[in-house]
Amino acid sequence: MARRKQEESEPPGIVVLYTSLMILLLAFFILLNVISKVEETRVESVFESLMGTFGFQQGGVSPLDRGSADITRRTVVPINPVELGYTQLKGLVRQSGLSEQVKLLRSKYIKTMVLPALLLFQPDSTEISPQGAAFLKKVAAIIRDKPYPITLNGHTDDSPSQRLDGRNNWDISCRRALAVLRFLVAQGVNPRRLAAFGLAGFHPLVPNDTPHHRQMNNRVEMVFDARDQSMYRIPASPAQPTIDFRGFTFDLMNVPTEEKK
Q: Which domain holds residue 75?
């Protein structure tokens, strides 16, 4: 009886306050969910606009601060070069009206721009077309001063080549990848950053089940790799690899030397 009187004596405001807090918390989570689903293109446009308006450069300072002794230099947070280039290329594709033709793919470290053969080359040819040259010039202007490596992979569909000169799909895919490489080098891209491969029709983007899909599979993929490449610059040790365990040394590979022979 005493407990019931105590409960009845508690002010109802506590219940109302608790309910209000729960509603506010729910509204907060709904707001976070809405913010997280903002269109990526809108975010990219705002980013590009801000970068252009204030003249910020990657890992540098605003031009307003450069050469001024009275103004504190405002450093800019470094941006991953691959991410920056990928964002700029997406903007280029959108501004060029090629969103339906040029596909941009991404993973954690790898970014890929898929360029259809119909855009880059003359019909049934490995020579770059005027339309392809105009687009690749804009691409080269974006990637020219970036440090990351770029791989150019040429692809075809799985149909045997019908060319009268006898070139097969391996040759066609190689020549197309090399044509893009040479064009980028002519535009000032460092050739040491570039590699070209012909993969014929063994890596289709989509199934080769319709004429449209076959057109999509005839392509050159421009792959940007954000992983650290420094491990490839470490010279190999001439010493025989061994494991030392508590004073005992074991050869990993017992390869006979010239002296043993």
A: 19-79
